[in-house]
Write a structure and sequence with these properties.
By secondary structure, this protein is α+β, with helices and mostly antiparallel strands. It has a single domain (5-147), classed as Aminopeptidase, CATH 3.40.630. Helices cover 25% and strands 29% of the residues. Strands 1-2-3-4-5-7-6 form a seven-stranded mixed sheet, with helices on both faces. It is globular, with a radius of gyration of 15 Å. The model has no long low-confidence stretch (mean pLDDT 95).
Length: 150
């Protein structure tokens, strides 16, 4: 993996984060409805722990958003160009460290169905399923938990 930095997102990153979400190949076809019209705003970035992975020229490789109350991984995306390069793993390891520092014992993840195995490989445990909520989400989603205590 090339040199990468994880830093706190700033309001000016909102447009790039929105673009990364909207262009994600993971949300094409049957899953497109969940991100249709979704926007990351500067206010969202200010209210939550949003961290971005960037390369040395500030190209966005991925990001995550950790909501502290209640503890939940709200968003996690890796740019299509960075898939398979370890960016997602590094972001999730970072997120768990941030959650631990914030005193959170666990972090809930409502997973995109194709991403469940990724989270499980990193140590998340499935604790249930979240029911569909049509029309935007017409499918069940795995509910997982990362335990952050060592």
């Amino acid at each position: 993996m090339q040199s990468m930095t994880i830093r706190r997102a700033i309001g000016q990153d909102a447009g790039r984060l929105t673009t990364l979400i909207q262009e994600s190949s993971a949300y094409q076809g049957e899953y497109a409805s969940i991100i249709s019209g979704y926007r990351v705003t500067a206010d969202y970035i200010a209210r939550h722990q949003v961290l971005v992975a960037v390369d040395p020229v500030e190209r966005l490789l991925g990001f995550y958003a950790l909501v502290v109350e209640p503890p939940e991984l709200d968003l996690a995306f890796v740019a299509d160009i960075a898939q398979g390069m370890g960016v997602g793993r590094l972001l999730m390891e970072h997120m768990i460290g941030q959650a631990r520092e914030a005193g959170l014992a666990e972090v809930r993840v409502v997973s995109h169905p194709p991403a469940e195995e990724f989270y499980r490989r990193l140590g998340a445990e499935r604790v249930g399923m979240v029911a569909a909520s049509p029309p935007k989400v017409a499918w069940e989603r795995p509910e997982l938990r990362f335990t952050t205590v060592r």
